[in-house]
Amino acid sequence: MATTIPAVQLSVRTRPVRVNHLLDQLPAPDGALAWVREGDGLVGWGELARFEISGPDRFAEAERWWREFVADLDVRDDVGLPGTGPVAFVSMSFADGPSPSVLVVPRVVVGRRGGTCWITELGGALEPTTPLPVRRPVDVRYTDGELSVSGYRAAVRTAVRRMRAGELAKIVLAHDLVATAAEPIDPRFLLSGLAAKYPSCWAYAVDGLVGATPELLLRKTGATVTSRLLAGTIWPGSAGEADHELAATLLGSAKDQREHAYAIGSLADALRPFCSTLSVPAQPGVLRLPNVSHLVSDVSGRLADDFSLFQLAEAVHPTAAVGGTPTNVAVPLISELEGMDRGRYAGPVGWIGGDGDGEFGVALRCAQVTGPVARLFAGCGVVADSDPDREVREAEAKLVPIRQALEGADRA
Ligand SMILES: C=C(O[C@@H]1C=C(C(=O)O)C=C[C@H]1O)C(=O)O
């Protein structure tokens, strides 16, 4: 466990400001923090405090650290909206293993919600600095990650065999791909590209994990909890359909409906004990993105008590959208068959406020950026009748957004 908390009582001041584009506020590539969708959300920079934790108790430990941190702040909030006041950006590891989860409390947060914009300064105002220009990655080259495409195909094949033998019903397997540029990669370039092309996704950056996810694990606003779950995927050209036929083909696919049913079942079962009411759609809809379309269910509930976002996240993570069914069989099998560390890919990512409300997405369609190297991830739900070649192509389709963001495709 690593933690830094300043000893004196910290001031936190939120006041209204005028800003145009949130992502344009980030002054430097290093330490860029973001959670932005359709122009709304939060960006942050200047690290004030950080907490790193790993292992099975990471959610409870993170919760305890954050509660202690906010207990002793001197807060003046002149705006009073979700995301004003103190905020930590959060990125949790997928697995219970040694990979760290991280909470970062920035010195400055700029937010927007509807027509209202604000700035929160923590620990006093930062000295203004000249913003560094956003740099496009130069000369990006790809190499295999820890699990190559052929290794991935073999892992899917093994999983299918084990499902046919009755060991489990669904597993989500992923692989990685390494992109290396000639110079350090600027996360702001990836964020602006992703946000422009995928406005309905949550574009995020926390401690070098950068992506745009279409999937919301949990949003807690007071006693209301909501979630957007995705499972079941089709992509243009996948089965020779015309574009307008994709949605109907996906809705009519028994395999995708089964994948979705496992995932929604796992989410609803995990949330129900915390809720006085829980509304789950009887049938999924279709979420259309430029690269893929997904079966989607928007779930909402009313919390029965004052449960925290970390407590809820611990209960629902990993849903069978990124883990499998049953979870206790699928999760160990993921690490056995992938043979790689997912790090924070497919873990909860987002923000939490001083009152414990906040939003966690599922960290998908992302890259872990370290200097000039980015490790990209994509995965697919596998069931007993999955075709390994098709899952390889599906993962390829899911890598398109982050690859294009790195390459600056479609950009001047
Ligand atoms: C695992 C990923 O995506 C998940 C798997 C999906 C599927 O198998 O159909 C769909 C959306 C996500 O829940 C990924 O993008 O890496």
TrEMBL record:
Q: Where is the Chorismate-utilising enzyme C-terminal domain?
A: 151-398
* Catalysis performed (reactions): chorismate = isochorismate
Q: This protein's superkingdom?
A: Bacteria
Record-linked Pfam families: Chorismate_bind
The EC number of this protein is 5.4.4.2
GO MF annotation, one: isochorismate synthase activity
Q: What class of enzyme is it?
A: isomerase
Keywords, ordered alphabetically = Isomerase
InterPro entries in UniProt: ADC_synthase, Chorismate_C, IsoChor_synthase
Question: Could you say which protein family the record assigns here?
Answer: Belongs to the isochorismate synthase family.
Know the name of this protein?
isochorismate synthase
Q: What organism does the record attribute this protein to?
A: Goodfellowiella coeruleoviolacea
**What is the taxonomic lineage of the source species?**
Bacteria, Bacillati, Actinomycetota, Actinomycetes, Pseudonocardiales
